[in-house]
Amino acid sequence: MPTFDLVAPVAALDHAMLHMLPPWATLVVWGCAVAGLSTAIYLKLEPHRRIDALKAEAGVARAAMLSYDADFDGLLVLVRRTLRLSFTHLALSVGPAVCASLPALLIFTYLGSAYAHSLPPPAAIAHAPRLSLFAWLHGWEILFFASATAASIPFRLLLKMRRERADA
Q1: What's the burial of 128, exposed, middle or buried (CB within 10 Å: 0-12/13-18/19+)?
Q2: Could you give the 3-state DSSP secondary structure of residue 146?
Q3: Which of 15, 14, 20, 48 is nearest to 34 (CA)?
Q4: What is the pLDDT of residue 125?
Q5: DSSP result, 21-77
Q6: 98 to 39, 40, 95: CA distances (angstroms)
Q7: pTM of the entire structure?
Q8: 3-state secondary structure of 122
């Protein structure tokens, strides 16, 4: 396998699944697999203890800001602190989120080339509208993203419960 041919194992697995499952079911399997893998990567890489500490500190800063009743210069200090904590939280979350999206991008590029090249029958082409805003609704993307989104919720809850049990 060449160094940059990362899609070859995905293609081999997809072809094997297509012998056992209909195409729509393979898309659901890919969506669930991507959801599980991306969720696991994110939860493994995220610095959850630092983020939890930042959330607590930000809550205190917001409460101080809401209860502040003095001059405007003092309020600006509290606003600055709240914004700094929020942007720190964002900075801590971006790296793991980008890394977690890489499996989805890999699968998405493969599925985009593997499932997008089926030609409709000639009769459908003759009666097709010129331009349609909703032409993309008939593609594989909706099923893939819907299954990935639906599967990510229980994966996230299970992995989060597992992490909380390990922390306790």
Answers
A1: exposed
A2: helix
A3: 14
A4: 46
A5: S-HHHHHHHHHHHHHHHHHHHHHHHS-HHHHHHHHHHHHHHHHHHHH--S-HHHHHH
A6: 12, 13, 5
A7: 0.71
A8: helix
